[in-house]
Task: inverse folding
């Protein structure tokens, strides 16, 4: 009862704090610009400058906050955005552990949440809380399925596993451990490490001791270099597979020769140059890169593309929501949620998105491209 009263009290506080209907559309953004997730959050905070300033004839106001890669700070930021700033939608966070508590705020305030994080748990299983949550990063199961099928085709029978000790790594482990036996693959180990660790030598040695045909690393950004480097430096010569979380030039620059040959299932963004100019995925990429370079003067990475893709989804949903209600009202937020759910065949840097009442990720394996680190570049595996 006390918990129920707390929720009702918070909801009442939020309702009282909400401003009257207005013309401007307020978009709250929460990213991990500092802390262990900064490799993801830094390019995302830079991408804010490239986002559209007007959609559907209405001005867009962005309020961007840093959660410092901390779930408590992320929750505080989300509450501030809905109570103090009266945003119509929240984008964030960069990390799964930071995003998960924000789902409560989305439900309590009836505010759509578009996550930049990866874990399937953000949008599945569908329930009252996840009804308000969407995400642009493909679900673990889609990428894991594409990757495991490829691994099986290469003749791998035993597979070691090293992953980060949070929702991202554990989400991938759940998918890998579930799919591998159906494809005749035995997972020999389940080693974990923290994103902020400076060494994974012990974990690498344990994996090598099981003599696997290949190793699967579930990590993101530059922390994903550590396991592969440790494996190579200790003489492991087998195949190494990564996840789409490594699709940054920083991963290649830091890993150098140690990450050559790494293969992962990833988004079209990483291999857009290998696609023909008229390919819809290539056109989506060209639009983003052009806007980002105009705003920042340098090239973006996939994590920045996550933020751009949320804006693309909003660009498709806002005009319909404006027909139902004015920004700054509960009715507008509800209409915006409904319109996001109706998005069909939207080409994004992250994939081909078709949302539904039961699928708030919207992708299938058409969004998973096999990618290899080759010659210091990401290349499409053909």
Result:
């Amino acid at each position: 009862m006390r918990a129920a009263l707390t929720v009702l009290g918070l909801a009442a506080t939020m309702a009282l704090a909400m401003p009257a209907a207005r013309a401007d559309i307020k978009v709250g953004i929460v990213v991990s610009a500092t802390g262990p997730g900064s490799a993801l959050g830094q390019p995302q905070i830079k991408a804010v400058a490239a986002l559209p300033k007007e959609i559907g004839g209405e001005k867009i106001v962005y309020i961007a906050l840093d959660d410092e890669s901390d779930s408590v700070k992320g929750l505080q930021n989300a509450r501030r955005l809905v109570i103090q700033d009266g945003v119509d939608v929240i984008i964030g966070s960069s990390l799964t552990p930071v995003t998960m508590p924000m789902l409560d705020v989305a439900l309590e305030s009836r505010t759509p949440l578009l996550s930049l994080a990866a874990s399937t748990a953000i949008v599945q299983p569908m329930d009252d809380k996840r009804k308000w949550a969407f995400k642009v990063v493909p679900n673990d199961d889609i990428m894991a399925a594409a990757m495991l099928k490829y691994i099986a085709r290469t003749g791998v029978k035993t597979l070691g596993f090293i992953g980060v000790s949070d929702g991202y790594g554990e989400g991938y482990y759940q998918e890998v451990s579930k799919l591998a036996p159906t494809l005749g693959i035995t997972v020999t180990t389940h080693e974990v490490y923290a994103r902020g660790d400076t060494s994974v030598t012990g974990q690498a040695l344990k994996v090598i001791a099981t003599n696997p045909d290949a190793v699967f690393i579930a990590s993101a950004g530059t922390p994903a270099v550590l396991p592969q480097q440790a494996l190579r430096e200790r003489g492991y010569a087998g195949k190494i597979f990564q996840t789409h979380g490594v699709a940054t030039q920083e991963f290649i620059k830091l890993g150098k020769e140690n990450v050559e040959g790494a293969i992962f299932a990833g988004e079209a963004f990483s291999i857009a140059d290998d696609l023909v100019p008229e390919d819809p995925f290539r056109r989506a990429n060209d639009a983003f890169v052009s806007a980002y370079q105009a705003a920042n003067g340098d090239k973006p990475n996939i994590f920045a593309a996550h933020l751009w893709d949320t804006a693309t989804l909003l660009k498709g949903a806002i005009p319909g929501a404006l027909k139902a209600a004015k920004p700054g009202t509960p009715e507008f937020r509800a209409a915006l949620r409904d319109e996001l759910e109706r998005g069909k065949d939207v080409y994004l840097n992250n994939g081909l998105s078709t949302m539904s009442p039961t699928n708030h990720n919207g992708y299938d394996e058409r969004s998973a491209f096999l990618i290899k680190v080759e010659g210091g570049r990401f290349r499409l595996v053909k």
Q: What stands out?
A: The two ends are 58 Å apart (CA to CA). The chain has a mean pLDDT of 93. Residues 302-324 form the longest helix (23 residues).
